[in-house]
Amino acid sequence: MTIKFGTDGWRAIMAEEFTFANLEIVVQAIARYVQEAGLADRGVVIGYDNRFFAEKFAERSAEVLTGNGIAVLMSKKTLPTPVTAFAIQHYKAAGAIMLTASHNPPEYNGIKFIPEYAGPAMPEITDRIESFVNEMLAMREQKSLTIPRLRVPKAQEQGLVRSIEPHDAYIEALKQVVDFSAIGASGLKIVVDPMWGAGIGYIEASLKEAGLEGKAIHDYRDPLFGGIMPEPSASVLTALKEELLATGADLGLALDGDADRFGIIEADGSYINPNQVLTLLFHHLLTRKEERGKVARTVATTHMLDRIASKAGLEVEETPVGFKYIGQSLRDPACLLGGEESGGLSIRGHLPEKDGILACLLMVEVRAIAQKPLTEILAEISAEYGTLVSERLDLHTLPEEKATILEALKSYNPATVAGQKVVKRLAIDGVKVLLEDGSYALVRPSGTEPLFRLYVEANSEEELKAIQQDVKQALGL
């Protein structure tokens, strides 16, 4: 078998590939990386979400780390990914192990390493960890692998396991970047849906600290996530929408399974997609809070950010897909906002890690200060900067067809698409063509499946459909 880190760690189906034996190998590889980096004396935070057997996987991870003489800092309850990342900074740790499969189905679990800078691990780090993993997989095949473990009671006796509770300190940190006073003065009625995940209680506690009471649904642990994926998308958040409409609340806020992604629903039931959230937030930071700085976005994220930045004379940094690249940009104090169309964002002064709790509270702040629905603010932005509509299509192919399409993609460099002149071709991540009217099309192959993702942004629905059809036909998708 192989254990490979994807865009955000290693994920697999429990009892099939995500087993205690395989987890031990990954944790041992992380221990070796921490030792090699000279950080072992600072200890490692362990966080875990609400998935099945989460505590047991966390305990086994602690046994391997302490078996290597590395101290462990672990909460007695689940921690969201952004709070685990915050704990690294707060306790000055060497990094963190986060046990989560994020928004994946309930049968999955996963593990990722968050380095000492409290943002996603860059490829050079995960590549090094993977090299250790591969060494140990080969040793296991030869039956020569031994992984040291120290039982938790023994580790506690030796002072190698320390209990932490970063909840209150994390909320205090949110106060530095979110206007709690404006939120409290707004009197808004909020409904929160943490989707049975690790984010339970965090938005509610923040709203209460600000002076608002938020009503919560799905705020108890369910490892099966109510029989749905813990993904805060429009198609999944039907219960939140129903609750919002039934109670007459002003805003619905949702988190995914580990609370690093967000979902926003307006009072009328409208889903505010991540591209729109980034647009609202960037506009708000520039106009309402009068902040300045570059914006970092992935190649697949809305160019409305570019339009706003251009008018303000600000830089846009375009990165490959994956929040790890956005996180690197956010480590630059000149970067005001970083985000991606898949639902991750953070801002200057906070963590270089995506944070759904922060994103939700910032949308409450936007709503509170503007004193109007988010849909109205979006309409005003469109009136000033023009309209952009976007859509992602996941296009499945046969495995034997994928290589042919990949070859076609390498040479894909059309003069026009759907009657629009191509003004630029980019190959940062997949192939992206920019059209003269500001539209774009991006095609990215999946690294693991016979699947291609087609992202299109255009000035109208009709143009969007025409671009999609042209690209699909040209590449045989």
From TrEMBL:
One of its GO terms (biological process) is purine ribonucleoside salvage. Residues 3-135, 168-269, 273-384 form the Alpha-D-phosphohexomutase alpha/beta/alpha domain. It comes from the Bacteria. GO terms for molecular function: magnesium ion binding; phosphoglucomutase activity; phosphopentomutase activity. Keywords: Isomerase, Magnesium, Metal-binding, Phosphoprotein. It catalyses: alpha-D-glucose 1-phosphate = alpha-D-glucose 6-phosphate. Its EC number is 5.4.2.2. The keyword Metal-binding applies. The keyword Metal-binding applies. Its cofactor is Mg(2+). Pathway: Glycolipid metabolism; diglucosyl-diacylglycerol biosynthesis; Lipid metabolism. It is an enzyme of class 5 (isomerase). Belongs to the phosphohexose mutase family. This is Phosphoglucomutase.
